């Protein structure tokens, strides 16, 4: 499903975080990149409902998202992960994913359990199903975040630096999981990351934000070679 | 039934310890302790339920309420009024006290929803003050008629009737122990299921909870309601244990601070901490008075002991957090 | 509805009380902004000071009036020294241990202090009898009403405090340092602000203000018992909540309003008796209304340090 962003503007006091951002995300897995402070996480926060934009609209699959109360967006199908992982320490892996499913999805217990187990299987977490998250390391925690984002019937999966802090082989593992999300769920995935090899591997299409505005968009390889994009990143390291 | 079986195998329930404690309470304690200690143990059971309600809010939802004495007092009042005025069986009286207290708990929770941390603590303390003033004005029923049930002349004052099956102090203690057990099981049931998972999410990160589809407002109110219900039922138990001339001093600001000190000293991570809080608040002091040099001195000094204990607890937990690198 | 003649003395008394709430509120807000601690023990410390000073004076219930004989007069500044020392001792030795924790944990430390002092007081002095030092009280008539010098002093003192402290925070080096720490502790430390010393100064100032409040209080309120003293901090907290623990002037006016309304409601009787009976709910109602109004958006952020 496509995401139509029109004239999205967000102001925090005097700072304009998103400046009439306008773009359309196509189906599949899309990258959203840009230097620090470009507004990527702010954009996600608007989609999640934590931030109310000054103006603009976001239409996903025909529905205007901005009118919806925050917690209902997840029920509608907006899921996300966070830059600092938020897997719930006091719960088991299974319970972490169950929490999302029982607030957004199926009615019968059997259906819920099946959906959760399927999501755990998809993210290679089945071996640690009943472990308390407190005892687990960053790989499991990051993967749990993704499992929570894909369980049930998501329509929009927002991944905010999902591989941050992971070593290369786990990043590659995560990458192959991310690539499989649209096919498994039909959802559109938007991936924000600074790891360009991950973005290239997962996303056929990417958009670049700078100073809260769209700088470039199109096939990922072309966008990454675009002069304007390289100029925006001067002084930043492209991983 | 299947749900109950599932509950007993959950990690929040320690069957061995529970069985031991209940056996001790129901069979051993009444046999070996005299009336004085049995009454203390009854107070301990009552206090433990109130402590559990505060501990649940603090340790499992992340909501600091300094106002749990309010539903506690309301529960006492409602149960007393109904016990004098009606022939309803005591379990019904306790439930009535709990339900009215739960309504009050939700009312207290509503303004508290928008704030957190220290601000929440101060607001709940204020709201507890409001209830304290109300209870002070109403006074506790003592056999009189009318809405307040306060007798205008001394001859009308009667002792609160206890349940017919629990009239002796030992029998009432058993009754209190069972009710306390049921309250703890109720809390565990909530914690082990959907509400508990939602609360764990809210406690760790409200944005993440919202992103998971959790209606944070609703679940916070459910938490306030459950905690108030528990405290209200405990209030009803308290009424039956003391039976007459109840004043506001169990439910005032001083009691509120004393409660939070005891709760923190007992530990908020597990419901067992509430039992420890009850032990500290209602049994330990009397042990000191009876057996330590100084006697009554310990009673009058009890507030200071708890102040010291609270400070120790804060210092220890701070050192602990520093060691774990949790403090920036 | 009582007549205006009946109400006016209560309004005047209310202004005096509100003034004392306002000074308390000022102390609480400044300390919070500098250290992140809400001093819930303010009343308990003041009560302790009042009781100790009373005892030092050789106080007895039958003869509470001040006797300027010899060293007994030292009990007056002695009270302020006691409250200042207790507060400073807490701020210097205990508060820093909880330094890196959230404001709630830090403030629970003052709850511990309050409980500790309450136990000592309960043990040492009879809780129900009024204690404290008294000032010679002249009364005079102002426009048909009887006003006491202490009431005027209280009002004057409160205005002096809020103006003085505001100027202090604005114009002096240490005051500016306090504001800097309130704004950003880590950066201030990096910039060379002697954080611990400035915080100690804030604690000391809070302790001094506490002593001054409790010097005046017994002269304003004849039947001031231990409980009323200890919980004197609550209406002040109400004022501070309205001021969002940030604005001294809003705290001032909110505290004045709380004190005045509380006292104003005292003489109501008959069908309006409940107003008198429930007047002590005033700080609760005002602060809850303030919170509901202020939190129309999602979270309430206060004074640069989120209270959570």
SS content category of chain A? alpha/beta
Total number of helical segments of chain B?
Answer: 14
CATH architectural type of chain A: 3-Layer(aba) Sandwich
Poorly predicted ranges of chain A (pLDDT <50, ≥5 residues)?
none
Unreliable sequence segments of chain B:
none
Protein chains sharing the most extensive interface = B-C, 47 and 51 residues
Distance between the termini of chain B: 47 Å
CATH class identity of chain B: Mainly Alpha
Q: What is the H/E order of chain A?
A: EEEHEEHEHHHEHEHEEHH
What is the CATH architecture annotation of chain B?
A: Orthogonal Bundle
The CATH homologous superfamily of chain A corresponds to: P-loop containing nucleotide triphosphate hydrolases
Q: How do the strands of the widest beta sheet of chain A line up side by side? A: 6-7-8-3-9-10
- Overall average residue pLDDT of chain A: 90
**Averaging pLDDT over every residue of chain B, what do you get?**
91
The helical percent of chain B reads over 70%
* Gap between N and C termini of chain A: 30 Å
> Could you say which overall geometry of chain A the principal axes of the C-alpha atoms support?
globular
Q: What is the radius of gyration of chain B computed over CA atoms, rounded to a whole number of angstroms?
A: 20 Å
Oligomer: heterotrimer
Main sheet makeup of chain B: none
Please write out the topology.
The complex is a heterotrimer of chains A (239), B (328) and C (308).
Chain A: E1 3-12, E2 15-25, E3 29-33, H1 40-48, E4 55-60, E5 63-64, H2 70-76, E6 78-80, H3 93-104, H4 109-122, H5 138-150, E7 156-160, H6 168-185, E8 188-192, H7 196-202, E9 205-210, E10 213-219, H8 220-225, H9 227-232
Parallel strand pairs in A: 3-8, 3-9, 6-7, 7-8
Antiparallel strand pairs in A: 1-2, 1-4, 4-5, 9-10
Helix pairs in contact in A: 3-4, 3-5, 4-5, 5-6
Chain B: H1 2-8, H2 15-32, H3 35-61, H4 69-85, H5 90-112, H6 117-138, H7 169-192, H8 194-204, H9 206-211, H10 216-242, H11 253-266, H12 272-291, H13 296-300, H14 302-323
Chain C: H1 4-35, H2 42-56, H3 75-94, H4 103-124, E1 139-142, E2 145-148, H5 149-171, H6 173-183, H7 185-190, H8 195-220, H9 226-230, H10 233-242, H11 248-264, H12 273-277, H13 282-294
Antiparallel strand pairs in C: 1-2
Helix pairs in contact in C: 1-5, 1-6, 1-8, 1-10, 1-11, 2-3, 2-4, 2-8, 3-8, 5-6, 5-8, 6-8, 10-11, 10-13
